Amino acid sequence: MANFSKSNVPQFSVDVYQNEYLPEGGREVNAIVTVTATGGGTIGSAVTASHLYSPGEGPSAAVVLMVDCSGSMDYPPAKMRNARDATAAAIDALRDGVHFAVVGGTHLAKEVYPGDGTLAVADAATREQARQALRRLSAGGGTAIGTWLRLADRLLASADVAIRHGILLTDGRNEHESPEDLKAALDACAGRFTCDARGVGTDWEVKEVTVIASALLGTADIVADPAGLAADFTQMMETAMGKEVADVSLRLWTPVGTTVRFVKQVAPTVEELTGRRIEAGPRAGDYPLGSWGDESRDYHVCVEVPPANIGQEMLAARLSLVVPRPDSSVRNLGAQGLVRAVWTDDTAASTSINPQVAHYTGQAELAQVIQQGLDLRKEGDIDGATAKLGRAVQLANASGNADTAKLLAKVVDVVDAATGTVRLKAKVEEADEMTLETRSTKTVRVKK
Q1: N or C: which terminal CB in the chain sees fewer CB atoms within 10 Å?
Q2: Three-class SS of the chain
């Protein structure tokens, strides 16, 4: 197993890409903010507080695996076997010293391992005990995902660790609790742990799984063939084990008279953050970014500034990164970015759209029109669906989003990608449609 020390904490940086020039009276300022965490060997980083780590190990972490054990997991019987194998593979990928538990989910939530209301600590012995316990997993009962999440939250809260993460697998719709119950559970768990969600097969509801992952700042995906679960679970766990700093927030300060129009993640996926703002003092707010390892993500920040005359300039926003301290204060990660506004009568300067801003505006539209097109297709609006999915093909082609283009080509026949001329396929495999819907928010970065 990998051995980490405090010097493994990554160094954060913030880069801002924008066209700061506005015409006289112009008010809208857009910027793409790239946040990067690199070089987990940085010594003296601002976040090397002792509470982030267990002695001699990497960042202290806890993981709860939530496995659907509803009756439908027995159809076909291989599905339950694949789920057990995948959970075992994920447990094998745990770093020594990580706290973990397994929950079996039906219309109730049951502790499968260790089963005593606590978390086990990963080593050779506990991994083997967990594998033995997985053999007792069997299918039977309904589906109430909110109860699984609440139990995971209680278990994760029992460990004094820096990083708390869940992995959730379901094969069906959340039929045994109301949407309000699920939302209440997600609201209760948000900010307490992150969670990756997976749907196996094709009998589950895409929007339920993506809402879970979105609320808990994790990833969502489809595993159409249960045989692929073990590889997917292993990859998810390896990614979770690479997280080194938890609960990072983007702090946005704006001057008097400036309004934040929106803040959204735009890479590697589109994720709306505007409504998640937590006030952080005069004219400042924090937007949760979740847990980080060595990685880079892009965010689109849009603010509205007071109108000004030619030649004037102002600081439109100041961005920084913070993490919570045990005493409820925050620690600044030392990375900062500035968003500026400069009013000019140079038409060429004020009408030029920054390439990063233009690209991600298109990627956000791509995610939106795919969702709209698929919804219209389900409603039987062929013309509307064709128009939306045609626009999606056009945007995917223009931005070089080859993965999304391939998924779209399984739902529509592409006549001309450049103009977005398409025909809906008469017959579409359910797995292909669900894959497109689940992965519609995945983006590509700006072409260099």
Answers
A1: C
A2: CCCCCHHHCCEEEEEEECCCEECCCCCEEEEEEEEEEECCCCCCCCCCCHHHECCCCCECEEEEEEEECCHHHHCCCHHHHHHHHHHHHHHHCCCCCCEEEEEEECCCEEEEECCCCCCEECCHHHHHHHHHHHCCCCCCCCCCHHHHHHHHHHHHHCCCCCEEEEEEEECCCCCCCCHHHHHHHHHHHCCCCEEEEEEECCCCCHHHHHHHHHHCCCCEEEECCHHHHHHHHHHHHHHHHCCCEEEEEEEEECCCCCEEEEEEEEECECEECHHHCEECCCCEEEEEEEEECCEEEEEEEEEECCCCCCCCEEEEEEEEEEEECCCCCEEEEEEEEEEEEEECCCHHHHHCCCHHHHHHHHHHHHHHHHHHHHHHHHHCCHHHHHHHHHHHHHHHHHHCCHHHHHHHCCCEEEEECCCCEEEECCCCCHHHHHHHHHCCCECCCCCC
